[in-house]
């Protein structure tokens, strides 16, 4: 008998298998959800996410997670954010269409940058070195508390005395060669005596008639021409001497000034380049400002990268065999992930700040609205008034967002700023006001804020001369205005801090550094002066020599000038008269 | 394991239709090559149980093709991505994506789409190959095998007893 193609017991077996699957899912749904959420949130976060417990309720469909901790990929010993409880009302109708629409999300007990109780978390996407936040502060340890050695100072500053000495030597040698060359064309004493002799012969010897007078006149004219040429040579030589004297004087002056200039350069080095002296505000307040800004930039630092990763699979390393889900949502379709309303209770120094959110999604182009958020808390234990609001959109070009806040009358008490070996500093008490705006365009942050500390009392102790000077200055402060600017990309924000404290303390620290440096400066100055004096002697002698040569040349010139005054006509007349009267 | 092998030999040597065995091989291949937790695999399981296909070969095929799938995953992903990114099909995908059935099927998942299409393409080949092997085994290999001394030895073993018991 031919058996039927249908195996009816198989239908029962299928029913049993499906039944078992349903029962197992039902019994272990919370565990399955916990594992799935830890896996998918961990992939979005780029590092391990732990959830203590997940619970569900069918009607209305509600999911509650307790103790959610998201490891900071850049600092795995800490949680980037952690929440005590998260509760979401999920839309069943949309879930059947494959969309996660949450009508109301409540998140309570949000804290950022908390140490992980369960030890270091796994990191799935290691942030680039460049992505690790480059905050304004450096370490107090980097502040140079001992001065560099003499040779190190010379190497770093680049002293120029030697160079000036070499230049002076070269230029003076050039001048020496030029005036030596000019000197070769000068008449000597013998030549002048010869001129005198010849003029005497022409003007004073016996005349043999009128023809002789004419001949002598011609010879005298030739002689005068030669004398004029020599005078010209003397003139040129004197001009050369004047120029050389000027150059030598100038070089001597520069050589004399060179050690002083180098010493000034070393002083500038201490004022400007002393490592760590440039940004005291960043050094002192950088760490605290970083913590404060992590709360202020919570929306950008935590939510935006996660939403960005959820829409860009490239940012998360693919697991082999996991594949990739593509979206074919139409332009007018609702977003696939949409939290319509959310309330987050952020814990700031044991006080609770409620932030209300609307329209959290990674598909703002489908929704046509940005994610918006507002926080307001007045007359709390911590401050008189706080108001924050902002909006955020994930677009094809990147994240666009803006946020502004005002904080008034925040009480700061016993707030530790630095606890290093070099400097211990804390704010004993202060009233803090702050307001600012941050804009994000195509993932780039741009914003500034003002932090004003009023009624400021600080405690500080330094262990070196420099840090002690800092501590003294800090204790004298009673008001501090700090300008803060935000820049860089959203995944790698940069915070710049500056205030008049920088100038005040920078000057003070420079003076302290200079006081310590005086001894070393003296050594350097003595070295330079001995070098300069060694060369100055020969140059001064040269200048004196030039002066002497100039007076010699002047004397020659005068003698030649006198010779040029000699006239044959007068002598001739006298001789002729003598003859005539003698003959009569 | 011995029982499973014995059952397989029984199926090969029995009067079970070669096409039923080929169908078991193909269904097991779908289950093995495509991601397990997908709705289409419920249909495959339902078909394997309700129709008189050989469950032993179905499970064996599932195990073998699961191993092969691990090796072919990158290729499935690329194939699925190419299919899902085909411009002329975008309208159909968008329409399917808007439906519950489309969402539940997870057709938009590259690995699911790639492995499913690959399984569809090679299923006739696998079916024909299985049919050819079974028919030729029964016609030639079965008789030739029986003549080997080793087979004679096996016939005297516990495994053979198990096989005979199963055969009834």
TrEMBL record, chain A:
Q: What lineage is on file?
A: Bacteria, Pseudomonadati, Pseudomonadota, Gammaproteobacteria, Alteromonadales
Coiled-coil blocks: 213-258
Keywords carried by this UniProt record: Coiled coil, Membrane, Transmembrane, Transmembrane helix
Alphabetical list of InterPro entries matching this protein: CHP03545
Report which superkingdom the organism of origin falls in.
Bacteria
Membrane as a keyword of this entry, yes or no, is yes
Protein name, UniProt field: TIGR03545 family protein
Segments passing through the bilayer = 12-29
TrEMBL record, chain B:
Can you give the residue ranges of the DUF2062 domain? Answer: 7-140
Q: Which residues cross the membrane?
A: 20-37, 49-72, 116-137
| UniProt keyword list | Membrane, Transmembrane, Transmembrane helix
Reading the lineage from the top rank, the first entry is Bacteria
In Swiss-Prot or TrEMBL terms, this protein is called: DUF2062 domain-containing protein
What species was this sequence derived from? Idiomarina seosinensis
């Amino acid at each position: 008998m031919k058996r039927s193609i249908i195996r009816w017991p198989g239908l029962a077996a299928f029913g049993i298998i499906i039944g078992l699957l349903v029962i197992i899912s039902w019994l272990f749904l919370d565990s399955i959800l916990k594992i799935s959420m830890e896996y998918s949130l961990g992939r979005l976060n780029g590092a391990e996410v732990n959830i203590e417990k997940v619970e569900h309720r069918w009607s209305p469909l509600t999911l509650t997670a307790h103790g959610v901790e998201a490891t900071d990929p850049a600092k795995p010993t800490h949680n980037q954010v952690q929440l005590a409880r998260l509760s979401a009302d999920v839309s069943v109708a949309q879930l059947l269409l494959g969309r996660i629409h949450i009508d109301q999300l409540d998140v309570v007990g949000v804290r950022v940058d908390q140490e992980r109780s369960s030890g270091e978390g796994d990191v799935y996407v290691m942030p680039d070195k460049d992505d690790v936040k480059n905050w304004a502060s450096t370490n107090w340890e980097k502040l140079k508390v001992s001065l560099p050695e003499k040779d190190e100072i010379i190497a770093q500053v680049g002293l120029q005395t030697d160079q000036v000495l070499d230049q002076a030597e070269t230029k003076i040698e050039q001048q020496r060669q030029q005036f030596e060359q000019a000197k070769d064309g000068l008449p000597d004493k013998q030549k002048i005596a010869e001129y005198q002799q010849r003029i005497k012969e022409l003007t004073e010897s016996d005349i043999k008639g009128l023809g002789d007078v004419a001949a002598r006149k011609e010879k005298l004219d030739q002689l005068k021409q030669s004398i004029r040429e020599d005078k010209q040579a003397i003139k040129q030589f004197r001009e050369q001497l004047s120029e050389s004297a000027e150059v030598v004087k100038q070089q001597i002056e520069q050589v004399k000034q060179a050690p002083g200039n180098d010493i000034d350069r070393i002083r500038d080095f201490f004022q400007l380049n002393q490592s760590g002296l440039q940004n005291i505000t960043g050094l002192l307040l950088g760490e605290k400002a970083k913590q404060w800004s992590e709360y202020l930039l919570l929306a950008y630092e935590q939510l935006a990268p996660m939403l960005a990763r959820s829409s860009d699979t490239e940012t998360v390393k693919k697991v082999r065999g996991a594949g990739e889900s593509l979206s074919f949502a139409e332009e007018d379709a609702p977003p696939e992930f949409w939290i319509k309303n959310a309330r987050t209770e952020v814990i700031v120094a044991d006080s609770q700040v409620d932030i209300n959110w609307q329209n959290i999604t990674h598909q703002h182009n489908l929704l046509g609205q940005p994610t918006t958020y507002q926080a307001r808390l007045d007359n709390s234990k911590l401050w008189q008034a706080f108001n924050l609001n902002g909006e955020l959109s994930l677009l094809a070009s990147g994240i666009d967002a803006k946020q502004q806040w005002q904080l008034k009358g925040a009480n700061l008490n016993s707030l530790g700023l630095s606890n290093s070996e070099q400097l211990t500093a804390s704010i004993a008490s202060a009233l803090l006001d702050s307001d600012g705006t941050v804009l994000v365009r195509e993932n780039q942050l741009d914003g500034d804020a003002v932090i004003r500390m009023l009624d400021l009392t600080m405690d500080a102790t330094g262990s070196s001369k420099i840090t002690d000077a800092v501590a003294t200055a800090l204790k004298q402060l009673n008001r501090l205005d700090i300008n803060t600017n935000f820049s860089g990309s959203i995944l790698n924000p940069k915070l710049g801090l500056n205030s008049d404290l920088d100038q005040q303390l920078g000057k003070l620290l420079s003076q302290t550094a200079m006081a310590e440096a005086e001894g070393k400066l003296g050594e350097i100055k003595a070295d330079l002066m001995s070098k300069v004096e060694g060369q100055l002697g020969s140059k001064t002698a040269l200048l004196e020599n030039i002066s002497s040569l100039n007076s010699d040349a002047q004397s020659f010139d005068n003698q030649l000038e006198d010779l040029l005054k000699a006239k044959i006509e007068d002598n001739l007349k006298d001789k002729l008269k003598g003859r005539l009267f003698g003959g009569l | 394991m011995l029982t499973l092998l014995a059952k397989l030999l029984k199926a090969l040597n029995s009067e079970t239709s070669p096409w039923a065995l080929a169908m078991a091989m193909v269904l097991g291949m779908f289950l093995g090559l495509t991601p397990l937790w997908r709705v289409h695999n419920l249909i495959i399981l339902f078909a394997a149980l309700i129709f008189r296909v050989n469950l032993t070969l179905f499970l064996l095929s599932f195990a073998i093709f699961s191993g092969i799938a691990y090796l072919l995953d990158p290729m499935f992903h690329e194939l699925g991505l190419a299919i899902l990114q085909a411009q002329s099909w975008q309208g159909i995908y968008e329409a399917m994506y808007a439906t519950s059935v489309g969402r539940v099927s997870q057709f938009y998942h590259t690995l699911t789409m790639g492995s499913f299409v690959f399984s569809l393409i090679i299923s006739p080949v696998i079916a024909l190959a299985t049919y050819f092997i079974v028919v030729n085994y029964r016609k030639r290999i079965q008789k030739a095998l029986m003549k080997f001394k080793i087979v004679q030895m096996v016939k005297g073993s516990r495994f053979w007893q198990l096989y005979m018991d199963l055969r009834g």
